[in-house]
Each structure stands twice: as structure tokens, then as C-alpha cells.
Amino acid sequence: MKTNDIVKYMTEEFVRYIDTPKAERKKKGPREQWSSRYFGMIPMALRLSIANKRAKKKRV
């Protein structure tokens, strides 16, 4: 990228940021659990596996 492209991009982003209302900028969505944020689907897979084993054990 050329320097002019970078300056143009930064200016557009700054203007877009300024144009959005302050309340909308501060709005945050729900946060992911720390375990899935750092480890992805592995914790959920482990929980499902353990629950499945416990359910099978209770049936017997």
C-alpha cells in the first residue's frame, strides 16, 4: 500500500467513528466464556463427552 492509501483509509475510519453516536459506540455484545475464547470447541466437546458417559452409566 502506498502512504496515500493508508492516510485515506485512516481518515475514513476516523470519520466513521466520529459519525456513530456515542451510545452506539459504547454498546457491547455478550462476551464469550473465557474457556471457549481461549480453547475454542475443546471444552464443550469434553463436557458433552463426560455428560454422555454419565448418562450411559446411569442407564445401566
Automatic annotation (TrEMBL):
Pfam family, one: YqzE
Taxonomy, superkingdom: Bacteria
Protein name per its UniProtKB record: YqzE family protein
Source organism (scientific name): Ammoniphilus oxalaticus
